[in-house]
Amino acid sequence: MKRNVITTTALGLVLIVCSFARGDAAEIKVISSNALKTVLQELAPAFEKATEHKLVFTWGAAVPLKAQIEKGEAFDVTVLTTAAIDDLINQGKLVAATRTNLASSGAGVAVRKGAPKPDISTVEAFKRALINAKSVAYVEQGGTGIYLKQLLPRLGIADALKDKIKLLPPENPAEIGMTQISEILPYAGDELVGPFPAEIQLTTSFATAIAANAKEPEPAKAFIKFLMAPAAAPVFKAKGLDPAG
Question: Which residues share a beta bridge with 209?
């Protein structure tokens, strides 16, 4: 029951929501943050079946993806942090009228599957868990990694961790990994210990918008409507995200 939790409902719904987009099949180029990767991968087949359009994804961390767009990367629609979306709108790279809030995600701690799970229930416990770990990993250019570069000195443990930090993709081996919860859950080899303590939690909001020079603006609008359909919400939740609205 876990697979494609929206398939039956969404197919019927998307035929209504996106019926205007049927006709000539289009290739929709999507630039998306890794935080939404598992959600979009699960929703994409239903959208493609209902509309006959083809989704082509480029995945990555928000910072380098934003840089690609600023350099003139060709695409139709993007899913990034709200801060990145708003900045790109201000630069004229995205159409402001199409800006849509999608979801939010918290940061979490992961360990290798089967490994003991440290106590991270309080800020002090969180600090002890990192200090006691043999290695700690996070993605340097991801939103969580940028936040951690400020958080660790604030917690007074940056020096204690400097020789343990691995600036690697989240699937690389380390005793403890930290990233968005939605990026931890897909990895079969990892287990979620839990979210950061509330006092230091990082909640990241994600939005979507259409490129100012989109080749396929109408199909891209159909895709955004599909993502906002009520039937899509359970998929966001199952992947560790809180859907907007």
Answer: 78
In angstroms, the first-to-last Cα distance of the chain is 25
Q: What angle do CA 10, 12, 16 make, to 5 degrees?
A: 105
Distance CA 102, CA 84 (A): 14
- CA–CA separation, 223 vs 225, rounded Å? 5
Q: What is the dihedral of CA 169, 172, 176, 179, to 10 degrees?
A: 20
SS3 238: helix
Displacement of CA 185 from its chain's centroid (Å): 12
CA-to-CA distance for 41 and 45, rounded, in angstroms? 8
Which stretches of 137-216 are DSSP H helices? 143-155, 158-161, 181-184
Residues 6+ apart with CB under 8 A from 130: 136, 152, 157, 161, 176
User: What mean pLDDT do residues 57-72 have?
Assistant: 94
**Could you read off the pLDDT of 66-86 as tens digits, one per residue?**
999 999 999 999 999 999 999
Per-residue confidence (pLDDT) for residue 183, from 0 to 100: 85
What are the tokens at 197?
Answer: 């303590």
> What is the rounded CA–CA span in Å between residue 245 and residue 240?
16
Residue 148 has pLDDT above 80, yes or no: yes
